[in-house]
Amino acid sequence: MKRLLFILLSFGPLLVSAQQVLTLEECYALARKNYPLARQTALLEEKTQSEIAILEKGKLPKLDFNAQATYQSDVIEFPFQIPNSTVEPPNKDQYRATLDANQLIYNGGNIAANTKLKTAELAAQQQQVVVNLYTLKSRINQNYFSVLLFQEQEKLLLSKMEQLDARLKEVSAGVKYGAVLPASEQLLKAEQLKLEQQLSQINFDKQKALKNLSLLVFQDLDSNTTLAKPSIFIAPEMESQRPELELFNLQEKQLETSKEVISKSNFPKLLGFAQAGYGNPGLNMLDNSFQDFYMIGLKLNWNIFDWGKTKEQKKAVDISKEIVFTEKETFLLNNEMQQKEAENDIDKYAAMLLKDSEIIGLREKVLEATTSQLQNGAITSSEYITELNNLYEAKIDQQLHELQLALAKANYKVIKGG
């Protein structure tokens, strides 16, 4: 016996450590970290950096190599003969190869404006990922509290089983000595089997909910996992902090930045250019031989009239901003309705819990009297089982209402963006 006790004490810490305790906030954090969608934040950052790098390359010189060989049906000829001149008309077959360089000197800050727009787009896209991940909270809540409910029901059924076992031992002793009819013992055994069946069903349902939760948080959860009952405090006076609101703000900022890009697109563009080449003829069209040549200069491009294109583009952006504003208003309206519904649920379950304690207190007194009557042979096992079931149904109702209240509070926090 001492050896067995020593073994149990030795393995006790290992058994305790094998129990995995998980909180609701840890589930949220695991989903944010491990859900496949979360990887988009870094990918979007990388994509934007590449796009900005492409824009910055517009500031570098542009080099082009060009070559051509042509044959033309006619060439320039003098209509008269110049005395003492040996000028020959150009050849009909001509050849040219050039290296052209163009360097942007000024473009009105168009590259900087587009870089700013890319940064604004990135912020909005990353916030959209945050919004999409935030929707997981409601699904986590549903599965988390389902597991909690099964945990609590399992505890209550095990407690009920203990009471039933105690009554069964007493009744079995009475049957042995002929003081109690065998039917009473059989009724208690049937109820015991029914409890075992309920425990088995709860275990399967719990495993199913744990599996769903594990898929959301990307964590292996099994029968050794215990979910902690959260203590949730709500502040109705707190303003909404939903990530969608920040998304709407960033979308408006992105659209406003796009107007700046539209304005910059019509600014004058100044470029420096250089050309070096080799061909026949060269720049001197009257010399029918292969020559090398070069040219340098400046080029200005300015679209001074675009037929109202810029104005219409800005008008389209303003309409898009109005669309975002209406989406924001619609979201706030729906969010307020959800808040009212959640507040109503919180009040409802809180009121029900006030009665639950009173009901359980009365049921415990009835069961106490019924237990004494059963022990004295004044009632049958069937009557005892009825009162036992009544008590534990009341306790299960209380646990259900407690968890429904906690779920309503958790959902309220999600709705408010807490």
Automatic annotation (TrEMBL):
Pfam family, one: OEP
Primary subcellular site in the record, as a coarse category: membrane
Keywords, alphabetical: Cell outer membrane, Membrane, Signal, Transmembrane, Transmembrane beta strand, Transport
InterPro entries: OMP_efflux, TolC-like
Stretch forming the signal peptide: 1-18
Record family assignment: Belongs to the outer membrane factor (OMF) (TC 1.B.17) family.
Protein name: Transporter
Annotated source species: Aequorivita vladivostokensis
